Amino acid sequence: MSALERCGYHLSCWLSTPRAWHRVDGPGGREALACLRVGDVLLVEGSSRLSTVIKYLTQSCWSHAALFVGPDAAQRAGGPPGSAFIEADLVDGVRLVGPGEFADYPLRVCRPVGLTDDAIERLVTHLLRRVGHRYDLRNILDLARYLLPLPPVPARFRRDMLSLGSGDPTRAICSTLIAEAFQAIRYPILPILEPGPQGAGAESTVYRRRHPTLFTPRDFDLSPYFQIVKPTLTTGFDPCRLKWQTPAEDAISG
């Protein structure tokens, strides 16, 4: 490893290190992990310095995305024991990880709708072929952009700033990796809609793909083509069974 690569590696580690004070108590993340299906996109509210910058630039609480490929596919692809997700990590590149990577963070499950088993298999296969791809850590200038927690970047340029290493064919960025896979099987995220031939009617609208480096984690949340799965509501939530404090108890606890 060259001196420049070592410098980039250490800078990446510093940017990616989670900060314990941001972690949340309670089972929220674990509940989300329990309801996943293969093909689901998992959004994560990270706590690292890099996550802080991504949340600021995208004006969203979601800083990371991973895709649930399932334990069987992960094991066949040579993933470590317990792995079931594919993600792009700044330091380690595209890798397979287990649910423990996300259990302690706020999570959101975004589920594609209407995909056949064959389409989901093609989606997973597309991603698994990229395991081991890495970001070029010699590109110190790309990494240095993330040293400021709130970069003084005009709003119209913020999304462009997230194209970390976009010229590198490995593209080891989480939302880029997943967006590229969905667009490869022609599943929409936030496509550009263009009118079809004049007089052909609304049904002739043409969907045009966006460049994968333009996607951010929050785009899966905003997309009208992904169902937001709330674990509490999928298990037969009944508000009538909740036990609330009485006004007197509220006064005491307050």
Describe this structure in words.
This protein is of the alpha+beta class and 254 residues long. The protein has a single domain, classed as endopeptidase domain like (from Nostoc punctiforme) (endopeptidase fold (from Nostoc punctiforme)). Helix content is 35%, strand content 14%. It has 11 helices and 8 strands. Helix 5 crosses helix 8.
How does the SSE layout of this entry go?
Elements: H1 3-16, H2 28-34, E1 41-44, H3 49-58, E2 64-68, H4 71-76, E3 85-89, E4 93-97, E5 107-112, H5 117-128, H6 140-144, H7 155-161, H8 174-184, E6 192-194, E7 206-208, H9 218-222, E8 226-229, H10 231-234, H11 247-253
Helix pairs in contact: 5-8
Keywords summarizing the entry:
254 residues, alpha+beta, endopeptidase fold (from Nostoc punctiforme), two-stranded antiparallel ribbon, 8 strands, globular
Q: What is the first-to-last residue Cα distance?
A: 58 Å
Describe the global form. globular
Helix content: 25-40%
The strand count comes to 8
Evaluate the radius of gyration. Answer: 20 Å
What's the assembly state of these chains? Answer: single chain
* Count of helical stretches: 11
CATH architecture classification: Alpha-Beta Complex
The computed structural class is alpha+beta
Name the average pLDDT: 79
* CATH C-level label: Alpha Beta
What is the H/E string?
Answer: HHEHEHEEEHHHHEEHEHH
Given as residue ranges, the uncertain stretches (5+ residues, pLDDT < 50) are: 166-172
Please outline the major beta sheet. 6 strands, antiparallel
